[in-house]
Specification:
Keywords: Signal. The protein is mainly β. It contains 1 helix and 11 strands.
C-alpha cells in the first residue's frame, strides 16, 4: 500500500488527538522552514507519498559524540567541507519521523557522485533532524537524492497504521552548494 494516506478517528485516536498531533507537526514544520529558508546556505522540502522530505546545507561543523561513555566535542575532519541536514516528517501531521536511516547522494554537473552515504540522527536544540559532515569536490550545482527505506518501527492503530511501507526517493535539482567549515 503506497501513496498518501489520510488519518481518521478510530478506536485508537479521536479527533482531538489528531488535532494535537497536527499542532505538533505545524510547530515542527515552522522550525524546519526556518532552518531551510533562513539558517542554511540552501535547502528545500518536498512531499513524496506519506513523507515530507527536506534538506538544509551548511558548512561542516563540530558535534558532540559519545566516546568511552562520555560526550566529547569533535571538530569536522580536515577533509570535510559540507554539512547536510535531512528532514523527514509525515505528510498528514507534519511530525518528525524517527528511526528513518536516510541515505544521501550528491551528484555534481559532471556526474561525479558523493555517496550514497548514511545520514544519522542528530539532536539539535531547535530542530530534530538527520545530519552529517562530508567532503565535496567544491562549490557548484548539485542534484541531491535522499533515499528512505520503510522504517522498522511498529505502527499503532489498525485503521491508520498501514503507512510508510515502501522505499522512496526524493530528488532536489539544481542545488547551489557552498562548501566550507565553521
Amino acid at each position: 500500500m503506497s501513496g498518501k494516506h489520510t488519518l481518521q478517528p478510530s478506536e485508537e485516536v479521536d479527533e482531538r488527538h489528531l488535532e494535537l498531533a497536527r499542532h505538533e507537526g505545524e510547530a515542527y514544520q515552522r522550525a524546519a522552514k526556518h532552518m531551510v529558508d533562513e539558517v542554511a546556505h540552501t535547502g528545500a522540502m518536498t512531499e513524496v507519498g506519506d513523507y515530507v522530505v527536506g534538506f538544509a546545507q551548511e558548512e561542516a561543523e563540530g558535534l558532540y559524540h559519545v566516546r568511552d561513555g562520555a560526550l566529547q566535542w569533535e571538530e569536522p575532519a580536515e577533509n570535510q567541507n559540507c554539512h547536510l541536514e535531512v528532514l523527514v516528517a509525515e505528510t498528514e501531521t507534519g511530525r518528525f519521523l524517527p528511526e528513518m536511516s536516510p541515505r544521501a547522494t550528491l551528484t555534481d554537473q559532471e556526474g561525479n557522485q558523493t555517496g550514497p552515504m548514511e545520514v544519522p540522527f542528530v539532536w539539535h536544540p531547535g530542530l530534530l533532524h538527520y545530519g552529517r559532515n562530508f567532503e565535496l569536490p567544491g562549490a557548484g550545482t548539485y542534484e541531491i537524492t535522499i533515499e528512505l527505506d520503510p522504517p522498522a518501527f511498529p505502527r499503532h492503530d489498525e485503521q491508520n497504521g498501514e503507512r510508510f511501507d515502501e522505499p522512496i526517493e526524493a530528488h532536489f535539482q539544481n542545488v547551489e552548494i557552498e562548501p566550507g567549515r565553521k
